[in-house]
Amino acid sequence: MAEVRYFSKSGNTKVIAEAVAVAAGTEAKDISVPVEAGAGVLFLGGAVYAFHIAGKLKKFIKTLPPQLSGKVAVFSTAGNPGGASHLIKKQLVKRGITPIEREFHCVGEKVKDEAMQKQAADFAREIVGQ
Ligand SMILES: Cc1cc2nc3c(=O)[nH]c(=O)nc-3n(C[C@H](O)[C@H](O)[C@H](O)COP(=O)(O)O)c2cc1C
To answer: How far is CA 92 from CA 4, 16, 53, 76, 87, in A?
Structure first.
């Protein structure tokens, strides 16, 4: 079964996490909930704060089972259109987890746009359908 975990300070990434979770047929949970080694695809989301991802998200990534290599899909929100996915992926690689190449990013102020929600859902379905 697919898992969704996110870190969100002000709620933007949570909105995307929930759209992803619905499309993937699962529930979005924050990073206080660990991920088991036997999990299916893991959708992992975060945001940029002062050019970095949150320290708590970095710590969470260090707890992920390396067996998830090849099974983690990253999504992010940020003020800039570049997003946080590359920063999250860097931490995954450090942990020995190769992320899925396909990623999703949304500018923070657009998370509630219907078109963005649909893109997030399409991203999730594409990954789960692989
Ligand atoms: C304290 C703070 C620092 C931020 N720094 C950056 C930044 O360096 N680069 C950027 O693109 N966005 C920055 N942002 C914008 C957030 O990445 C954006 O609002 C994001 O959607 C927040 O996600 P969240 O609501 O899930 O916490 C910052 C926001 C806050 C509140």
So the answer is: 15, 20, 12, 14, 9
pLDDT tens-digit map of 105-118? 999 999 999 999 99
Q: What is the residue range of 76's domain? A: 3-122
Query: Relative to the CA of 13, which ligand 1 atom is closest?
Result: 26
Q: What is the CATH number of the domain that holds 32?
A: 3.40.50.360
Structure-token match 């975060």, residue found: 46
Residue with tokens 């078109």: 115
Domain count along the chain: 1
Strand-strand pairing, 72-78 and 3-6: unpaired
Mutation test residue for ligand 1: of 49, 105, 109, the one with most atoms within 8 Å of CB: 49
- Amino acid 30: pLDDT: 98
- Give the C-alpha separation, 97 to 83, whole Å: 20
Q: Are 6 and 12 in contact (CB under 8 A)?
A: no
CB 43 within 8 A of CB 4: yes
CA 15 to ligand 1 centroid distance, Å: 14
